[in-house]
Amino acid sequence: MKRLGVAGALVGGNYRAGDVEIDEDSGRVAAVGLARPGRGLAIPGLIDLQVNGFAGVDFLNADADGYVRAGIALARTGVVAFQPALITDRPDRTISAIITAGKAQSVPVGARVLGAHLEGPFLSRERPGTHPVEYLRTPDLTLAQRLLNAGPVTQLTLAPELPGAVELVDLCVRSGVLVSCGHSDATAAATHAAVDHGARLITHLFDAMRPFTHRDPGIAGDALTRREVTIGLIADPSHLAPEAIHLAFRAAADRIILVTDDLAAGGCPDGHYRLGSVDFEVSDGVARRTDGTLAGTTITLLEAVRHACDIGVTTEAAVNAATCTPATLYPGLDLGLLRPGDRADVLVLDDALRLRKVLLRGIPVEHQAPATDRTHERYRFS
Question: Which of 21, 198, 246, 254, CA to CA, is 20 to 30 A from 370?
Answer without folding.
Answer: 21
